[in-house]
């Protein structure tokens, strides 16, 4: 893969226990240009929960996460929360589900973003966050999935805003929200047949290929695994 870094690079993958996060770790470890891959997930020490600000701060205090990193990938997030699936109607919306989805898909990742942006390389660097096409307000044609849509759209706005701010400090930094496609994983299994989903490694290979040519700008990119732009 070619990510545009001038020298062997260092990377960090958050949410590496999930199907897509683990695939990112494998791909980066196989890349001869990547000299180090640091991973962070709930099973490692220190573990962290996206709904606990103190745990996030404690996890980010780990010496291995001091940086600087050329590539940071946040593959955290959840669609089904416990036994509660995405809402099919407005009447199914609850404050508890909306609050939990916001924490896992927006507030927690926003706190990670806050803590990790200062650890990006001062040269060309990429901050990539796993998003979803349903986070696009423009692309919403079917409705439903209120909490998940709202939480993904909310974080997209935070990422875009952070990209604008950080661009004033580093004109070489790239921020990007990623749509991985329908990947065979525990997240997608209740909603799509495995035969109609792609493998996590194929998705990640496409995403890494897609982010390589991205140029820095005042704002974030929103693309899919084929490199196609998704409207906000």
Kindly report the spatial arrangement of strands forming the biggest sheet: 2-1-3-4-5-6
**Radius of gyration over C-alpha positions, nearest whole angstrom:** 17 Å
End-to-end CA span: 27 Å
Which spans of ≥5 residues are poorly predicted at pLDDT below 50?
A: none
Question: Can you tell me the CATH superfamily?
Answer: NAD(P)-binding Rossmann-like Domain
Number of domains: 1
Helix and strand pattern: EHEHEHEHEHE
Into which percent range does the helicity of residues fall?
A: 25-40%
CATH topology: Rossmann fold
Shape: globular
Question: What's the CATH first level?
Answer: Alpha Beta
Say how many strands there are: 6
Tell me what the CATH architecture is. Answer: 3-Layer(aba) Sandwich
Structural class: alpha/beta
Give the mean pLDDT: 91
Largest sheet: 6 strands, parallel
User: What's the tally of helices?
Assistant: 5
β-strand percent reads 5-15%
Please provide a written account of the structure.
The protein is an alpha/beta fold and about 230 residues long. The chain has one domain (about 10-225): 3-Layer(aba) Sandwich (Rossmann fold). It has 5 helices and 6 strands. Strands 2-1-3-4-5-6 form a 6-stranded parallel β-sheet, sandwiched between helices. Strand 5 (about 175-180), helix 5 (about 200-210) and strand 6 (about 220-225) form a beta-alpha-beta unit. The two termini are about 25 Å apart. The mean pLDDT is about 90.
């Amino acid at each position: 893969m070619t990510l545009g870094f001038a020298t062997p690079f260092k990377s960090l993958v958050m949410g590496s226990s999930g199907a897509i996060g683990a695939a990112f770790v494998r791909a980066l470890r196989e890349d001869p240009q990547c000299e180090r891959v640091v991973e962070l997930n709930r099973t490692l020490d220190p573990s962290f929960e996206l709904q606990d600000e103190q745990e996030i701060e404690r996890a980010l205090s780990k010496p291995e996460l001091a940086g600087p990193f050329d590539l940071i990938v946040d593959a955290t997030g959840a669609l089904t929360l416990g036994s509660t699936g995405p809402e099919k109607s407005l009447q199914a919306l609850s404050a508890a589900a909306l609050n939990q989805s916001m924490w896992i898909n927006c507030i927690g990742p926003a706190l990670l973003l806050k803590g990790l942006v200062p650890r990006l390389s001062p040269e060309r660097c990429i901050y990539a966050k796993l998003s979803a096409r349903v986070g696009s307000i423009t692309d919403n044609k079917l409705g439903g999935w209120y909490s998940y849509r709202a939480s993904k759209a909310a974080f997209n706005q935070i990422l875009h805003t952070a990209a604008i701010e950080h661009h004033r400090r580093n004109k070489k930094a790239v921020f990007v929200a990623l749509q991985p496609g329908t990947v065979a994983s525990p997240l997608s299994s209740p909603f799509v047949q495995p035969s109609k989903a792609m493998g996590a490694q194929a998705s990640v290979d496409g995403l890494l290929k897609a982010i390589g040519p991205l140029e820095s700008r005042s704002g974030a990119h929103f693309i899919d695994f084929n490199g196609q732009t998704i409207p906000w």
